[in-house]
Amino acid sequence: MDEVTTIHITKALSSSMIVELIDRYPNLEEITCSPSVYDRTSNTYIEALSQLDIEVNRKYQWGAESRSNGAEFEVKKLSDEGLTPREIASKMDITLNRVYYLLRKSNASFNNRKHKHSHEEVKKLRDEGMKPKDISEKLDVPLRTVYYILNKK
């Protein structure tokens, strides 16, 4: 372990801990800790380590590392190509919940998803004077879906 030059601690330094760290890591150059641990560490210890050319620095190390590995970009790209979340999950071999999470993470707009039925076609036929029941039969769309599309603001 003599190649280790930086370590992160989660407890305030004590004289015994310093001796143990120097024995365990002879090439130690930097000790990092959270600001709260730094504030609880005696200035005497920090100065003594500084004289040994070992810096004590504040550094946040919260939470686990991201496991997405850029997957949100792939998910967004597939979504922009018109694939549904279910199709994306199948193609990438990930769970549907993960797809939704990655879409939210990439700030994808959900308006770019393809509709199961053409909303524009339904509205166009209504504007031409066709009744909802006739639109339903012509486009083979459930009547309640036609009403939903027509009443959607």
Give an account of the 3D structure:
This protein is mainly α and 153 residues long. It folds into 3 domains: 6-58; 71-112; 119-151. Helix content is 52%, strand content 7%. The protein has 9 helices and 3 strands; from the N terminus they run βαβααβαααααα. It has helices spanning 15-24, 35-40, 43-51, 71-80, 85-92, 96-105, 119-127, 132-139, 143-151; strands spanning 6-8, 30-33, 55-58. A 3-stranded parallel beta sheet has the order 1-2-3. Helix 4 (71-80) crosses helix 6. It is rod-shaped. The mean pLDDT is 84.
Strand count: 3
Distance between the termini: 65 Å
Number of separate structural domains: 3
Shape: rod-shaped
Task: Briefly characterize the structure.
The chain has helices at residues 15-24, 35-40, 43-51, 71-80, 85-92, 96-105, 119-127, 132-139, 143-151; strands at 6-8, 30-33, 55-58.
List the SSEs and their pairings.
Elements: E1 6-8, H1 15-24, E2 30-33, H2 35-40, H3 43-51, E3 55-58, H4 71-80, H5 85-92, H6 96-105, H7 119-127, H8 132-139, H9 143-151
Parallel strand pairs: 1-2, 2-3
Helix pairs in contact: 4-6, 5-6, 8-9
Structural key phrases:
153 residues, mainly alpha, 52% helix, rod-shaped
